[in-house]
Every structure is written in structure tokens, then in C-alpha cells.
Amino acid sequence: MPDPAYVHAAFSSIAERYVTANHVLSLGTDVLWRERAVKIISEWKPRNLLDIATGTGDLALAVCRALPEVEVLGTDFCRPMLDVAVRRGLTRVLEADALHLPLPGASFDAATVAFGLRNMADYAAALREFHRILRPGGHLLVLDFSMPEGLLAPPYRLYLHHVLPRIAGWLTGNSGAYDYLGDSIEAFPRGKAFCKLLGTAGFRMATSLPLSGGIASIYTAEA
Ligand SMILES: C[S@@+](CC[C@H](N)C(=O)[O-])C[C@H]1O[C@@H](n2cnc3c(N)ncnc32)[C@H](O)[C@@H]1O
Known about the structure:
Blueprint: H1 4-14, H2 18-25, H3 29-44, E1 48-52, H4 58-66, E2 71-76, H5 79-87, E3 93-95, E4 108-114, H6 123-133, E5 134-145, H7 153-172, H8 176-187, H9 192-200, E6 204-211, E7 216-222
Parallel strand pairs: 1-2, 1-4, 2-3, 4-5
Antiparallel strand pairs: 5-7, 6-7
Helix pairs in contact: 2-7, 3-4, 7-8
């Protein structure tokens, strides 16, 4: 499981270059994945939404732009990432550990976490905490990388473990942070296994939607 101190230090060191690195390394597909997530969220018609591990605010800002009626709060334990989010226009942020959110239970209609849960020390405990802050019937959306299966798996592994850390090193000055990325994606449960984890954390109606041949997935569930 990821070490929180290492994760905090890694994101602090790359915060200023994170947005550019993200778009280059995913060849812009991360924008399309977030658009897909926003479309799903719009169908839920939430009044408020907590974007957990909001980082530099990409998903939270996409929700604010597309659904201005939704009250969005972005939370993250890494202040330098939140500082970038605020500079980019996210007005409501909270510095907090996602495993111990200083927020009342049953206080959000929707919660989202994009590329964040995979970095947390205990996936099951984090999901139970997300369930706690959601109103009964509230919705969770998790967007994260997943390992594709079949023919795409070998070339993707090559890219993930050998090509990506080099390019990321040039872009951010910290290739170590991206060595860790590949390992964290390999270790993160995907598809049915992730839906099962959602069930054990108390969620119902878990769904899994593979994106771009399975290199990312959107999971949804109800509290
Ligand atoms: C890869 S970034 C994702 C940022 C953003 N959600 C996005 O889609 O670009 C992962 C974020 O998770 C945050 N994070 C990791 N573990 C966390 C924890 N236990 N509590 C709060 N934030 C955490 C990191 O600080 C970092 O900003």
C-alpha cells in the first residue's frame, strides 16, 4: 500500500508542473475521461459535491464549469496542489486527509475521486470514509487508471514502466514520482474486484466502465 508521507512529498514536489505533465503523458485523454465523468454526475443532479484528492482541481473545475448550480468543495492533504487549484479558479478548498475528513456524516449528495484513491494507504478505509460523508442514496464516482487486458497489456506495461517515467522526469524534474505510478496502477484493484471492494465498504449498485481500452475506468456506486 502507498506510504502517505512519500505520496505527500511526491505531489508537493511536482505540484507546479502536474497539470502540464498530466495532459502530455495521457496525450490529452485525461480531459475526455473527466468530461465523461461530468456527464455521469450531471445525471445525478446533486446540490453539492465533494471532490476528494482534488489536487490541482481538474475534475472539480470541470464540474464547476459544466454544472454551475452544484456547490463544489475540493479537498486534498497536499497544500501545494491545493494552492494551484485555487490559482486556477477553485474557490472552495479544504486541506484534509481523505481517510479522516473533518466533515459531518451524510452531508454530500455526491463525492468524486479522480486518480486519488490509488494513492491512499488503505482503499477500504478510504471508501468507508467516503460512504460516511454521503447522504443515503448519494453517489460516488471513482475515476482511475486500470491495467488493460489482452493484446494492449504488454505494450502498455512497457510504456508505463519504461517510457512514461523518463518523459515525466523531463517534464517535472522528478521521475521517481512516476516510477511509483506504474507500481500503484498494477496494485490497484480493477473491474469486478473494485466493485466488490465498493460493496464491502457499504456501497450498493456498483458499476464499472472501462475507458480507452481499459487504461482507465470509471466506477460508480450509491451510498
Ligand atoms: C494524481 S493526483 C490527482 C489530482 C486530481 N484529482 C486530478 O484528477 O488530476 C492525486 C492527489 O491525491 C492526493 N492524495 C493522496 N493521498 C491522499 C490522502 N490520503 N488524503 C488527501 N489527498 C490525498 C495527492 O495529494 C494528490 O493531489
